[in-house]
Amino acid sequence: MTIMRLTSSLILCATLAACGGGNDSGAPAPAAPVSPAPSASPAQPAPTPTPTLTLSSPTLRTIAGGSAIPLSATLSSGGAVRWRLAEGAPGTLDADSGATVRYVPPAGALTAPATVTVTASGDGASATLTLAVTPEPGAAGLYKVSWRPPETENEPTLLRPVDLAADLAGNAYVLLQNDASPSRRGPPQLVKIAPDGTLATLIGANTWFGQPDTAGNAQRLYWTSGFTVDRAGNLYFATSVFGSGIAAGQQSSNGPLILKITPAGAVSVLAGYQGAQVGAMVDGPAGKAQFLYPRIAGIDIDGNLYLLDGDAFPLDAPVTPRKVTPDGVVTTLAALPAGLKADMKGNTYRYDSAAKKLMRIAPDGSASVETSAPYCSSFVPEPPRACIDDLGVYAITPAGGTSFLMLEVTGLHAVRRLVLPH
After folding, report:
1. Cα(190)–Cα(218) distance, rounded to whole angstroms?
2. Confidence bin at 14 (pLDDT 50/70/90)
3. Where are the domains of the chain?
4. Which residues contact 85 (CB under 8 A, 6 or more apart)?
5. How many Cβ atoms are within 10 Å of 51's Cβ, its own excluded?
6. Which residues lie closer than 8 Å to 180 by C-beta, 6 or more apart?
7. Phi, psi of 386 (to 5 degrees)
């Protein structure tokens, strides 16, 4: 019994001790110590933004022996800007630092056009500009250019020029429509005209860049809404559906595309969705972008393609400027670049069919008549083909300076080239 009482007492004491009830004084048990609140971390300074560098120039073109091109840099940090010309590039820079420098083209004649890369850097930021220096375009005047051998020039033909383009080297490209009958078209043909007048048929009757057209590539250009060529000689065609594209919301089994054709004749889709779709203008990477009725407006020195897209009808339907990068990424723009087809002074040109004059548009938007062009109204009697009376299909391709090459269809057989004094 004594042992049991002792055991019970021990158990009771242990229980009271575990519950805090073993304080003989009857005072409450002391509270557990409280850790001090952690002090707030000091505020971290905002990260310094990475500087940005933006380059600009009123033009990206000049000719050998021509005027210098001013280049400007804006560095967001306000630091010093350093300039560098690509190794081996023709010409010089008049300074290697500063917010503005000038690129001075080579004094001697060039036998072929050259592209020049200029790099600016400062405070960890860098940017580049690509300039084009072209050879002397030749004496001012209006010249007839044949797109087929002279011995066949006056023979009847089912072909008629419908579009034109020219590259920096002065090669002209004439796209010919094959009117097989009043109600049926044949595949188009494409002729390349070298500056010396040498002709090469790139796309012909069952031929494709010197080889038989066994793949039927020409059929892919059956409905084309414009083409252009880059500085490397790659051709770009905008193809439409049944000649007029597709309207927004319209079903199509295959949408309009932008095709790229290399100088060797290899064909690839640069941008556009190849499959059933609902008509829409969709930006994005090459295979996901969509078009309605894209018309090629031009290409810049860096190979970016510019389009005007929208519904084909009515003819005055609004159009949307769009850009296609060399990788095929499509974006929508607020406007086309102002200097897309500008000469080295930033002037662009258009033909006023009502006044029958070539208009020069200055960088500030003011328009004036290009007085150096030979207009037929200035001649009595009118020399045939020696003056500009009207322009049908034409393309204006700046060749540097205040000169440019203009290719213009006259009738069914001829193309003319206009060179302005510079």
Report:
1. 10
2. very low
3. 53-134
4. 91, 92, 93, 103, 116, 117, 118
5. 15
6. 158, 186
7. -105, 5
Which fold is adopted by the domain 53-134?
Immunoglobulin-like (2.60.40)
pLDDT of residue 406: 64
* Confidence tier at 5 by pLDDT (50, 70, 90): very low
Burial of 65 (0-12, 13-18, 19+ CB in 10 A): middle
Say how far apart CA 421 and CA 53 lie, in whole Å: 36
CA-based torsion, 169, 348, 343, 371: positive or negative? positive
Q: What residues pair up with 400 in beta bridges, in sequence order?
A: 403
Q: How would you write the chain as a 3-class SS string? A: CHHHHHHHHHHHHHHHHHCCCCCCCCCCCCCCCCCCCCCCCCCCCCCCCCCCEEEECCCCEEECCCCCEEEEEEECCCCCCEEEECCCCCCEECCCECCEEEEECCCCCCCCCEEEEEEEEECCEEEEEEEEEECCCCCCEEEEEECCCHHHCCCCCCEEEEEEEECCCCCEEEEEEEEEECCEEEEEEEEEECCCCCEEEEEECCEECCEECCCCHHHHHCCEEEEEECCCCCEEEEECCCCCCCCCCCEECCCCEEEEECCCCCEEEEECCCCCEECCCECECCCCCECCCCEEEEECCCCCEEEEECCCCCCCCCCEEEEECCCCCEEECCCCCCCCCCCCCCCEEEEECCCCEEEEECCCCCEEECCCCCEHHHCCCCCCCCCECCCCCEEEEEEECCEEEEEEEECCCEEEEEECCC
pLDDT band with cut points at 50, 70 and 90 for residue 122: very high
CA dihedral sign, ordered 378, 381, 384, 390? positive
